[in-house]
Amino acid sequence: MIEVNDLRVRFGSIAAVKGVSFRVERGAAFGLVGESGSGKSTVLRALAGLNRDWSGDILVAGEAQGPARTKDFFRRVQMVFQDPYGSLHPRQTVDRILSEPLLVHGIPDVDARIRRALAEVALAPLVRFRYPHQLSGGQRQRVAIARALMAEPEVLLLDEPTSALDVSVQAEVLNLLSELQRAHGLTYVMVSHNLAVVAHLAAMIGVMQEGELVELLSVEDLRAGRTRHPHTAALRALTLDLEDPETAKSA
Amino acid sequence: MNSSMSPTRAYLLSDTPQSRRQAGLGRAYRGWLQFRRNRLAMAGLLAAAVLILASLAAPLLATHDPSAQSLPERYAAPSAEHWLGTDEVGRDLYSRLLYGGRITLGMVVVIMVLVAPVGLAVGTVAGYAGGFLDRALMRLTDVFLAFPRLILALAFVAALRPGITSAIIAIALTAWPPYARLARAETLTIRNADFIAAVRLTGASATRIVLRHIAPLCVSSLIVRVTLDMSGIILTAAGLGFLGMGAQPPMPEWGTMIATTRGEILDAWWVPTLPGIAIFVASLAFNLLGDGLRDVLDPKQG
Amino acid sequence: MEVIVRNLRIAFPSHQGMAEAVRGVSFTLKKEKLGIVGESGSGKTLTARSILRLLPRQARVEADRLEFDGIDVLRADEAALRRIRGKRAGLIMQDPKYSLNPVMTAGAQIAEAWRAHRGGSGKAALAAAVELLAQVQIRDPRRVALSYPHELSGGMGQRVMIAMMLAPDPELLIADEPTSALDATVQAEILRLIEDLVSRRGMGLILISHDLPLVSHFCDRVLVMYGGRVLEECRASALARAQHPYTRGLLDCLPSLVHPQRQLPILERDPAWLGP
To answer: Which of A70, A95, A100 lies nearest to residue B199, judging by beta carbons?
Structure first.
């Protein structure tokens, strides 16, 4: 479904992404982990078409993508952002925010679709005409997910979707995301600095360090500790150390 | 919420609006409640409203024809006949102030209606487009910013003829650049927000993004700026009138009225002073109103 | 040095009367490491800041006892509080980007903190600043002392903050989410550093965080807050055997690398936790 070959992104004189390649099968979930500055969000934004200065190949559903994307692409690929406080227009009601993708793509049945979308992300109908500042962080993120799904995309790009949420809310949103993936057969590309969160959703994981993809491994290999690159091992050890001190000592 | 609230109020303050209109009205109502708490701003609003209504109702409120001269009664002191006295050719001052308000406030409104949308358009387009278009538009803005208002007015007078139209054009041409700059600054900040990225990801055209997503966010600070500028424009229009560049006598424009009678400041002091007070009150009213609006629409704290 | 808090109540005026943010919190702290854990809105930051009375102007604070080393914080005057703040108790906040002065070099800021509480000449203060930077394990303290905050990474910025707070040799350190803005690797280093310094200098530490496992690793005791109240207090080592359903819920809803689950257990909020 998604194929990235030798992606390179520069910001001025700094090379943020230095030759990253990976593939994601249709319906699968792929996770990109790394620390801040590793380039993982940059890769995602280049994939989304938000960033035009990249070189290499990006193929979605077999079609090669250029710097500018077509409306068709945006029907197929959508993104959920990290900050629930910044990803919703502060002066628009939830109803307006959700109707925008439908209006742009000319999809009819706006009212029915909005009601369906709210139900799917487990938001009560009474939030439909509220403004973002009247919603909690978890509710805002649900609206952001609903918005991404309005045009019925096939691919969802997730940029640290739960980093800004409380732990209990994170669990609900993660459950929602895995349920949606099952229900709609979505392809996920998810970026996070949290290994456990990524491992919950993704089957394949790419580890990035300083702009390079240093390792590609399956989630089972990660859990079992069959890592090859030292950075992967280090990230894994840190996660385990906090989770379960007894296990970390024996690993 | 107590049960003694009226149904309208309950509708407006509802936590769960049932439609976009209810949500929008609710938000406006909450803004109004917050504005109302500011005493000075309410005073400004009241004063501005009184001035505007009085000007509009001038034909009903005036006691005399503003251009009716009566030489035997020139420089008459305030009396039952002429509430605020008469001017240098015996015209009733009170009626002239009322009609003068129409001219002064009318000029200001026309200028604002011309200037704010143009500034908003130029600023948002420049801010969002960036690159060459941004630079070109900003250089254009700089050109107009470089003109001092009064000098430009003089140039227009030389080219056309003195009068309200020239004054309006001159002021409008020099008043729009700050709005463009303001809109551009706001656009530059908003442009990088995630919610704009989200709209871009729907494949919306740049026009749609600027018009429907960015411009509405700039409108608040623009409104505040307009209201605050009004006082300055009133002063400029009056200044032009005073210099003989704006409204020409016998038009009862406040600034012109001061100009033609300033020699009498010691004898018939009320004749030049009262128009001056009118200008001051109008200016202050809009200033206070603008401050109050800013606290509600454009709060920078928390 | 002992911090005693009994029945702390903090409320804010709002449209619908007073909104209670902290509702009857009590705890004691000596020379130990206390972690206060809670989600957003639990009142943990307000609780910690009330010890130094660093609350917003409109906050209404009441308590049966609120003492720092015998000093009644609620009734002390500003001068007495100034003698505590910085000198006897320091506060580290989340993002050094916002808490460091961007137009002063790191060394100058630390030196300023030193001189404000200890006096001495500019040269001595600067030398002390370099020494402190070495103590917070910065490899090239001289270079960092001459750098501006924007030239430093997040982790280094926090180390500078810590050095600044330690300059007057305080007895208590309050760290409010000191590592939330940092990467995992740096997070561990900074917390270990804080732990080390606090132990060596015999200081008390209050660590505020939303991260329960993190806090349990670095503290002796943990307070779990929810809705302005303390729901559970236990030794950090005993956290896995926590009693309260909220604490259990917080622990259980975390995704685990070694124990994968198809669906994460959801925290069911019992309104009874908000109390009477």
So the answer is: A100
Lowest mean pLDDT among A240-249, B174-183, C75-84: A240-249
pTM for this prediction: 0.84
Partners for C (CB, 8 Å, 3+ pairs)?
A: A
A45-91 confidence digits (pLDDT tens): 999 988 888 889 899 888 888 888 888 889 999 999 988 888 999 98
Residue of chain C minimizing CA distance to A243: C213
CA C62 – CA C205 distance, rounded (Å): 23
Kindly list the residues from chain C whose CB atom is less than 8 angstroms away from the CB atom of residue A236.
Answer: 257
Residue A90: CB atoms within 10 A of its CB come to: 13
CB contact under 8 A, A147 and B198: yes
Distances A151 to A78, A98, A118, B104 between C-alpha atoms, Å: 9, 10, 14, 53
Q: Mean pLDDT per segment of 10 residues, for chain C of length 276 residues?
A: 90 84 92 90 90 89 90 89 87 84 91 86 90 88 90 86 88 89 82 88 91 87 92 87 87 86 85 77
Nearest CA in chain A to B198: A87
Q: What per-residue confidence (pLDDT) applies to A96? A: 92
For residue A16, how many C-alpha atoms fall within 13 Å in the half-sphere facing its CB? Answer: 19
A93 contact residues in B (CB cutoff 8 A): 17, 20, 23-24
pLDDT of residue A247: 39
Report B:134-163 residues touching A (Cβ under 8 A). Answer: none
Please name every residue paired with A190 in a beta bridge, in sequence order, or none if there are none: A31, A158
* Residue ranges covered by each domain of chain A: 2-250
Contact C184 A235 (CB under 8 A): yes
Q: Do A238 and C266 touch (CB under 8 A)?
A: no
CA dihedral C11, C12, C13, C16 (to 10 degrees): -70
DSSP SS3 for C148: coil
Q: Is B131 on the interface with A (CB under 8 A)?
A: no
Closest alpha carbon within chain C to A232? C185
Name the architecture of domain A2-250: 3-Layer(aba) Sandwich (3.40)
ipTM of the complex: 0.86
